[in-house]
Design goal:
The structure is a homodimer. Chain A is an alpha/beta fold. Chain A contains eight helices and nine strands. In chain A, strands 2-7-1-8-9 form a five-stranded parallel β-sheet. In chain A, helix 1 packs across helix 7.
Chain lengths: ~200, ~200
C-alpha cells in the first residue's frame, strides 16, 4: 500500500498518473464521497459517488480505511476494493492527505509505504497554484495557506521527494517501490526458498 | 553504510564491483588482516596488511567496527577510514559476512542498510562453486556447507535479492540505494527546507 501525499501544486497528480501508466501491478484506490458528481466526472473512476446513508453505513461497519468531512461533504477510502486488489497481488496507491494517511497507518501500520512530495521552491509552488487557478488573489492565498498546512506534516512520512523534475521524481518513486518489494519481510515464501537452497546441500 | 553479504558463489563480488564502477559516491571499506600478503595482492587495495600487535591495538582502542578470527588469521574493519569517507559525504560499502554484519549493526544501528544476496538455485550455486575451484570434491563440499551456514542468516538483513541476473540485481541494489537516500530521516536539512517553503507563504 503506497500513499502519495503532497500540497496541492507539488506535482503529485502528474507523478501518480505516470506511475499508474508504467506499473501494471499498481491500482489506484478510488475514494468514496457524498458530494454531488460534477460535469465530466465518472462514477467509479473519479470517485464512488454514494448517498450519505451509504457512507454512514460503511463507516459504522468499519468499511472505511479513512474518512473526513471537507466543506460539508464526506470523503473516504472504502476498505473492500483495497483488500480485493491486495489479495490479487496488486499494489494499491492512495492519493490522500496527511489526515487520511494517519488513519490508514493506524489500521495497517506494517503494510504501508508513505511518500511525501514537496515542490522545489516557493516560487514554483506559487507559479503552479496561479497557473492552475483562474481565481482571485484571495483564493490563491487560501490555497497557499492550505499547502503550508499540509507541508507541516512531512515528518510523518517514510520518504520525502523534492519534485525538481517530473522524470526524476517518477524514477525515485519507482526506486522506492522496487526497494520496498525487496524488503525481507515483504517477500513471501523466502524462508522456504532459502531452506530449499540449504537443504539440498 | 551499505552491507552486502552472501554465500560464496552467489555473485556478490561481481555486483559490488559493478556498483563501485557506477556509483562515484560509493567507497569500498578495505578490511585489515594479519594474514600474509599473497602474490598479486596490493596493500590498501585488497587488504590493509597489519602486524598482530597493530591489529590488537586497534581492537583494544575500539578502532575496529567488527573483527573475527578465521583459520588463525585476524580480519577486521578499521573504523577511521569509514568515518573519514562518511564525513566527506561518501557512502561506504562493506563486503562482510553475517558475523561482521551483526557487530557493525550493534555499533551503528541507525545508519546501516543490509542486503543479502542469494543464488537463484542450488544447481547454480554448485555450478559456480565448481567453476571457481580447481579443487577436490571434498573442498567443494566444505564450501557448500559454509554457504548453507551463511544463508541461514538471511533473516538478519533488511533486503534480500535473489541473483537471477547480474544486471537486474545491480539495478535492484541501486534502487535500494536511491530509496534509502530518500528516507526522511536520512535527508539532512529537510526541516529547514520545508520551513522555508512554509514560511514564505
Amino acid at each position: 500500500m503506497l500513499v502519495l501525499s503532497s500540497p496541492s501544486g507539488a506535482g503529485k497528480t502528474t507523478i501518480s498518473r505516470a506511475l499508474l501508466d508504467q506499473e501494471p501491478n499498481m491500482t489506484l484506490s478510488i475514494s468514496a464521497t457524498t458530494r454531488p458528481r460534477r460535469p465530466g466526472e465518472v462514477d467509479g473512476r473519479d470517485y464512488h459517488f454514494v448517498p450519505h446513508e451509504e457512507f454512514d453505513r460503511l463507516v459504522k461497519e468499519s468499511q472505511m480505511l479513512e474518512h473526513a468531512l471537507v466543506f460539508g461533504h464526506r470523503y473516504g477510502t472504502p476498505r473492500q476494493p483495497v483488500e480485493a486488489a491486495l489479495s490479487e497481488g496488486q499494489d494499491v496507491m492512495f492519493d490522500i492527505d496527511w489526515q487520511g494517511t494517519q488513519q490508514v497507518a493506524d489500521q495497517v501500520p506494517n503494510d504501508l509505504v508513505r511518500i511525501f512530495i514537496l515542490p522545489p521552491s516557493t516560487q514554483e509552488l506559487e507559479r503552479r497554484l496561479y497557473a492552475r487557478a483562474q481565481d482571485t488573489e484571495e483564493v490563491v492565498r487560501a490555497r497557499m495557506a492550505k499547502a503550508a498546512d499540509e507541508m507541516s506534516h512531512w515528518a510523518e512520512y517514510d520518504y520525502v521527494i523534492v519534485n525538481h523534475d517530473l522524470n526524476d521524481s517518477l524514477a525515485q518513486v519507482q526506486a522506492i517501490l522496487t526497494a520496498e518489494r525487496l524488503k525481507r519481510e515483504r517477500q513471501i515464501g523466502l524462508r522456504d526458498f532459502v531452506e530449499s537452497l540449504r537443504g539440498a546441500q
